[in-house]
Structures are given as C-alpha cells and as structure tokens.
Amino acid sequence: MAILVLMRHGQSVWNLENKFTGWVDVELSDKGKEEAKKAGDQLKGLHFDYAYSSALKRAQETLQIALDEAEINNIPTKFDRALNERMYGDLQGLNKAETAKKFGDEQVHIWRRSYDVAPPNGESLKDTADRVIPYFESEIVPKIKDGKNIIIAAHGNSLRALVMFLEKMSPEEIIKFEIATGVPRLYELDSNLHVLKVKNL
Description:
With 201 residues, this protein is α/β, with parallel strands linked by helices. It has helices at residues 13-16, 30-43, 57-69, 96-103, 105-113, 125-145, 156-167, 171-174; strands at 2-8, 50-53, 77-79, 150-154, 185-189, 195-200.
C-alpha cells in the first residue's frame, strides 16, 4: 500500500484579488502562508519518499512551508510544468467579476466550469488533464506501485485532473468538484492504483 497526498497551494495574492491566474507566477498571500502551515500541521506523522510540485512558486512555496511545519526533511523533490495550473489564456490577469461583465456570466461560467471548452488562447480542463495524466503515469505511478509515499503540491485544475483519474469521475462529476486551498487530500492506494481510502486532512 502507498499513500498519495494531493495539496492545492494556499491562497495566492491573485486569488485574494479575484483574478484569473493560470500560469502567471504570483506569490502566496499572508493567508495562503497560514493555510500552508496548517496543511503541514495535518501532515505531521506521515512519511513521504518523494515530493512533486508544479513549476509555479505558489505551489512550491506551499510545499516547502508545509513540509517544514511537518518536520519532513530532505526528500527528493521535482518541479515540473506538467503539473502547472490550467492556462487561462486571454483571461489571465483579469478580474473575474469584470470578465463576467465583459463577456457575460454564462460565457465565463462555460469557460470556467465546462470540461472541454477552453477560454481564448487557453486550456480547458481536458487539455490540462492531457498533460497532467501522462506525466503522472510515467513519473509517479511506478513509484506508487513500488509502495512509495508521494506528496504533490499543485493547483485547483491540475489536481482536479488527477482526482478525476484516481476516482474515475465523469466530466460531469469533476466539473462540480471543488478543491479547497491548503487542504491536503490523502489517498491510500494498492499496487494496482485502486483507491482503498480517501479523505481530506
């Protein structure tokens, strides 16, 4: 049996300002740093063999703060943009409320919550899954099958792609599924990647 923990980064400064962030490399807010510390408190007593994060500093900072708080040291860590947040294209940097006024609530809702409709010059959740899942299967799955414990710090949409894969959710189910900032989600998995137990810490 292996443990896999998925952890969305703490609140970022653009989460706080209600902006579409995507691949823009913004930092954690003060609240986000506190969320990361609280996550670390929930991780105390767990053992990890490997850690992964996206290439964006809000995920990397969350991972480091949480591991420090949990007193988990010196584990091999990889950063890869395959785990980055969904690329929001022309919406990046725009305030969500202003964007809804400009394009209409219904259109923005479709861009944000549909599975396979991308915003202009951006990625849909399906596009995000198409880069997250192959990386997960090639880089991380062999370690899980070998009984290694893994923690991944990433983003709302890249983690939803993994939740969909692990929990065998449909597109309709995953678009309704929310991942809170700074709340670790723990899976116990067998060597065939079957979920034995899942819970938020």
